[in-house]
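Let us practice reading a record.
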Amino acid sequence: MHSDLLTSWQQSLQDDLDQIERKNRTRILRINEGRLDFASNDYLSLNAGGRLKMLLEKQLAAWDGPIGSTGSRLLRGHHPAFERAESAFKEFVKSESAILFHSGYAANVGVLQAILSSRDTVFCDRSCHASILDGIRISGAQRHYFDHNDLNHLERVLNKRSARGTNWLITESVFSMDGDSPDLQALVELANKYGLLIYLDEAHAIGVKGESGNGLACENNLSDRIAVRVFPCGKAPGVMGAFVCGPKVLGDFIINRCRSFIFSTSQPPILAALLADVIELLPSLTGERKHLEMTSNRLRDGLVSNSLNPGKSTSNIVPLILGSEDRAMRWMQGLQKKGIDARAIRPPSVPEDSSRLRINLQAGHSTPDVDFLLKELYTIAEKETK
């Protein structure tokens, strides 16, 4: 009986994998092969440029604490390094509190599950990250989705849909597959008009947006108008973890009610110490941010001048929208043959018929690097027309 059940279960898994394979959407893990990197999220090149390694070596030389945390932070897993990082970060982003989670996914799923209930209503951008969508779904809140960055559609939804409990507007500072940003000032005004609290994920803005790299809300002087801000640290900061920021009572509530915080082993405290060093470093990287803006504009202008479509990107994430999945895969493979790593993004990560190359500019990219990429993209485009 057990053997039959096990066999049947394994076959059901294989059937699902076969269905993915028939659509040519099978995911596999690959070791990076040393190509010119336009795929990773190392936006400030803190990894590629060796700065993180130097900071870590300096920390290790003086470190006398445990390497592993040995438990959740409510048990034996707390350490002064966490308090140092959280204190530095809340000052950096102008917040009353900052609580460090071990990942952005855990932060979004856990916090949304904790602060929302079936009595509440959520209005969410359709293009928000899976961790946000999962957190909303698990919470049981009534949910409505509006077209990506379309405030007119959002207002129509607000006028048509019934709302109950506490009403939330959920969006991101920079969207990971489009590289665009919402009109945050207009969103704040809309939230005020309709009585909404705002939840903002700043994963792709931290380190890049804002005069000091402290995100889109700070760049627009709106940090005090956002109820909850989440700052995953695996992109520009280059490490791991995520800070959840808001009023002091939010921090206290998370420690007492957020299951992904309470029941997870905390990240190694040496990484929290490293994060504190990165937070201290970020304001000084003005030159890197300006260079990133310059190369991103150069890439977008180069694409548009050759009738290639970068969408509405306004950041260092520049999509090349190609339409079909097969076309996106061909272009990715063509670049790989020339030593360039820019990944094809296909449904369900993006809508049908909007498959693309997702090109991530990094501070370590030189102007010749960008021009080399453009040259190879032009070559692929030219071959398609023949």
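A brief commentary: The chain has a mean pLDDT of 96.
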